[in-house]
Amino acid sequence: VDTPKSDTANLLNYLYNHLSDHWWTVGMRATAHTILGNNTSTNGTILEVGCGNGAYLCELSEKYISDPTIGMDINTQALEHAKNIDNIQGSLLQGNFHHLPLAKNSVALSVGLDAFDQTHANLKIALSEIFRTLIKDGLLLIRVSAHPWLLGQHDQSFGTGRRYTKNEICEDITKAGFQIERFTYANCIMLLPAIITRIAINLRLATVENQFEIPNILNILLTKILLLEASLLKLINLPAGLSIYILARKPK
After folding, report:
1. Which segments within the chain are labelled E, that is strand?
2. 3-state secondary structure 116-145
3. Who has the most CB within 10 Å: 114, 129, 132, 209?
């Protein structure tokens, strides 16, 4: 049974309000920085599509301090939360990545974390728009949910419409004209506990909300685990995990 849109909106609003320091969000932001590595942008705008509450956009602004940043989201609530971040830099736009309101060859780095796998997202059109707006040699960092067999109530609650295999996502990115520079899974250490939790949710033995009702000490421990994994990703690519990260480049 699909989660009603109002329930999904309420859950996302809860995340925007309370969970910028949740172990998963902290760890996944750290992982995204690791995948970007030492790639620096000095030739154009940095765009994050599906910027949510702006937490990662802030970190991008701090990392690429000399470059303009734009956060874009279709969700009004997300942008309202982003506007309220004290140290937010750059511009915020409400828009759809199927029709980016940006000029051709105007963006140096595009980032989409758990945006391209959302319900109603057309990956091919979105990638075409990203490709159009990127400068030559520009970068795309993308994160999507992995393993279609894991699709269930958890995904529906967060608006995730699809989980990808390695071959599916790599083929779409390559067909869009990009050259893939790095592929890795992430959230590998927590894969087995997550599978057990998803099964419990599907069997109605637990709820999606239960995942956020954890003691602070456990949140700290899980954060350290994902930060350790982010450090490990500086050395190797992971063979399995809940998420897929791809760093791709528009050819010169």
Report:
1. 45-49, 69-73, 91-94, 107-113, 134-145, 179-186, 243-249
2. CCECCCCHHHHHHHHHHHEEEEEEEEEEEE
3. 129
Rounded Cα distance between 233 and 188, Å, is: 11
Report the candidate in 106, 244, 97, 103 with the shortest Cα–Cα distance to residue 180.
Answer: 244
How far apart CA 101 and CA 85 sit, in angstroms, is 24
Task: Identify the three-state secondary structure at position 164.
Answer: strand
- Centre a 10 Å sphere on the Cβ of residue 190 and count the other Cβ atoms it contains: 19
- What is the rounded CA–CA span in Å between residue 247 and residue 72? 20
The per-residue pLDDT for range 83-127, each reduced to its tens digit, is 877 666 778 999 999 999 999 999 999 999 999 999 999 999 999
